[in-house]
């Protein structure tokens, strides 16, 4: 696992911990404003993981395109980039200029 992938995994584990806290807060009857604050932390952690994962995939695809020995492999990576772009444009939570 690359350092980037480990960082993404850490972010997802952080989101998991925050989500667990939200569930416990709801089960124990915590006030809604406290639960919403914690839910915001879940969303933030997921958003950061999404940014990192998108950057990582773009980097991997570009490296593969530049190093691929045949046209078919380069085209496969270009198709992955197009699919990623389509997905990102449908998931505006991950769109942020400075992160892509």
Helix share bin:
over 70%
Regions with pLDDT < 50 over 5+ consecutive residues? none
Q: Ends: how far apart?
A: 22 Å
Q: So, the CATH homologous superfamily? A: Metal-sensitive repressor, helix protomer
Based on CA atoms alone, the radius of gyration comes out at: 18 Å
Structural class: mainly alpha
Total E-strand runs: 0
Strand proportion:
under 5%
| Net shape | elongated
Oligomer: single chain
In CATH terms, what is the fold-level topology?
A: Methane Monooxygenase Hydroxylase, Chain G, domain 1
Main beta-sheet annotation:
none
Mean pLDDT: 86
Summarize the structure.
By secondary structure, this protein is mainly α. The chain is built from three helices and no strands. The protein has a single domain, classed as Methane Monooxygenase Hydroxylase, Chain G, domain 1.
Summarize the structure in words.
The chain is an all-alpha fold and 100 residues long. It has a single domain, classed as Methane Monooxygenase Hydroxylase, Chain G, domain 1. Helix content is 81%, strand content 0%. It has three helices and no strands. The chain has helices at 3-27, 32-67, 71-90. The longest helix has 36 residues, at 32-67. The two termini are 22 Å apart. The mean pLDDT is 86.
């Amino acid at each position: 696992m690359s350092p980037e992938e480990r960082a993404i995994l850490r972010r997802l584990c952080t989101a998991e911990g925050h989500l667990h806290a939200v569930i416990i807060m709801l089960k124990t009857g915590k006030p809604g404003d406290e639960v919403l604050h914690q839910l915001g932390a879940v969303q933030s952690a997921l958003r950061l993981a999404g940014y990192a994962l998108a950057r990582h995939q773009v980097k991997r695809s570009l490296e593969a395109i530049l190093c691929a020995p045949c046209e078919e492999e380069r085209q496969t990576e270009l198709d992955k980039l197009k699919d990623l772009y389509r997905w990102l444009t449908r998931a505006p939570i991950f769109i942020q200029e400075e992160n892509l």
